[in-house]
Amino acid sequence: MKRKYTKPPYTTVYEPSEEELDSLKGTLFSTVVFVGGTIILFILLLLMFYMMRF
Question: What is the residue-wise DSSP string for 7-51?
Fold first, then answer.
């Protein structure tokens, strides 16, 4: 027996304010910089240890 798709009862779309958009952009930038930087530093550290073996 197939279930029918029913639309949700609400029709309003939430638009974030300019202040929230700036906050989200700052959060995205911080995440990319810190997570990406940590990954790159970890890879460089492993590469340095690998090169010191020889």
Answer: --S----PPPPHHHHHHHHHHHHHHHHHHHHHHHHHHHHHHHHHH
Would you say the C-alpha torsion 38, 40, 46, 48 has a positive or negative sign?
A: negative
Question: Residue 52: in which H helix or E strand, if any?
Answer: helix 18-52
The letter for the amino acid at 14 is Y
Q: Which long-range contacts (CB under 8 A, 24 or more apart) does 31-40 make?
A: none
pLDDT-based confidence at residue 49 (cuts at 50, 70, 90)? very high
Asked whether 24 and 16 are in contact (CB, 8 A), the reply is yes
Q: What angle do CA 27, 15, 12 make, to 5 degrees?
A: 140
Q: Is the pTM of this model over 0.85?
A: no
